[in-house]
Amino acid sequence: MTAGLASMWSVARFLGSLLMSFVLILVIWWLFLLAFPDIGPIIGRTPGDVFAYLFTDPDAAQARSETFADLWITLTDTAIGFVTGMVAAVAVAAVFVVSRPAAQTFMPIAMLLRSVPLVAMTPLITLVVGRGVAVVAVMGGIVVFFPALVLIMTGLANAPRQLDDVISVYGGGRWTALRRAAIPSAVPSLFGAAKVSVPGAIIGATVAEWLGTNKGLGATLQQALPAAAYDQLWASVLVITVASIILYAVVGVLETVVLAQMGMQQE
After folding, report:
1. What is the distance of C-alpha 109 from the center of its chain?
2. What are the structural domains of the chain?
3. CA 134, CA 139: separation in Å to the nearest integer?
4. Which of 55, 92, 137, 200 could form a disulfide with 143 if both were Cys (CB 3.0 to 4.6 A apart)?
5. What is the mean pLDDT of the segment spanning 94-122?
6. Cβ partners under 8 Å of residue 106, min gap 6
7. What is the pLDDT of residues 10-26, one digit of tens each?
8. Burial class (CB in 10 A: 0-12, 13-18, 19+), 51
9. CA-wise closest residue to 147 among 86, 103, 207
10. pTM of the full predicted structure?
């Protein structure tokens, strides 16, 4: 099997597993409503009900337009938080790998901050940075930053020591070794961090919208529950879930293609 066919087969298997996971989510959703009939039909909505709300009901066009408009806002907020968190994680991981004293000093502080619930920090964050793009970047970045930091640090620290020795012999310093050896060898870890962080970025964006910006699907969830707009509520949940799976799939496909080009394709 050629490298191209192997890469295509890996992508197909990856997408197939995600599709099966989505089907399993729908089945669990349906079984959950059957197991707890008290939740519906007033509150609970099946996947079929959500599909009808978005595509076949008389008011489906308006519902679909409003839901997808909110989704676009949430995806924009997700991108802001994801980029902010990943860039910060890469930068801090590089510093920590090059400077062990910095890692020993600040890593415990970072983990301590991670233990504080994001919801509890929201009022302080909003007070400091205000409402809008800044609060989205901070809250989304926080959710993305910590798991990405650990994975990226592990990847950077596991660079082949032989390459470091060669670079050292030719007069290269730690930053040169980081750029020439550690970062290329850490590409799988970078993609692993990205895959873990994409769902987290959506969660961070949703929380920021819920508590900070009052826009997007996060605000829709907040407003739909007290208003008893359960069709809108369940539709928003399903759309967020589908968006998470699609974004995860995009990162996974990019990972397969890039690692294949680099000769690092995983089995």
Report:
1. 23
2. 69-255 (1.10.3720.10)
3. 9
4. 200
5. 76
6. 96
7. 777 778 888 888 888 88
8. middle
9. 86
10. 0.84
Cα separation, 36 vs 164, whole angstroms: 59
Counting Cα atoms < 13 Å in the Cβ hemisphere of 240 gives 26
Q: Are 208 and 139 in contact (CB under 8 A)?
A: yes
SS3 98: helix
pLDDT confidence of residue 6? 64
Of the candidates 186, 195, 216, 250, the residue with the CA atom closest to the CA atom of residue 82:
195
DSSP-derived letter for residue 57 is S
Using CA atoms, how far residue 217 sits from 71, 89, 103, 121, 128, in Å, is: 6, 26, 37, 21, 24
The token duo for 122 is 């929201």
> Is 16 buried (19+), middle (13-18) or exposed (0-12) by CB count in 10 A?
exposed
Please classify residue 79 by burial: count the beta carbons closer than 10 Å to its beta carbon, then call 0-12 exposed, 13-18 middle and 19+ buried: middle
Report whether 210 contacts 188 (CB < 8 A).
Answer: no
What residue ranges in the chain does DSSP mark as E strands?
A: none
CB-CB contact of 205 with 81 (8 Å) = yes
- Residue 267 tokens read as 């089995």
Mean pLDDT of the chain: 81
Q: What is the distance between the alpha carbons of residues 136 and 201, in angstroms, rounded to a whole number? A: 10
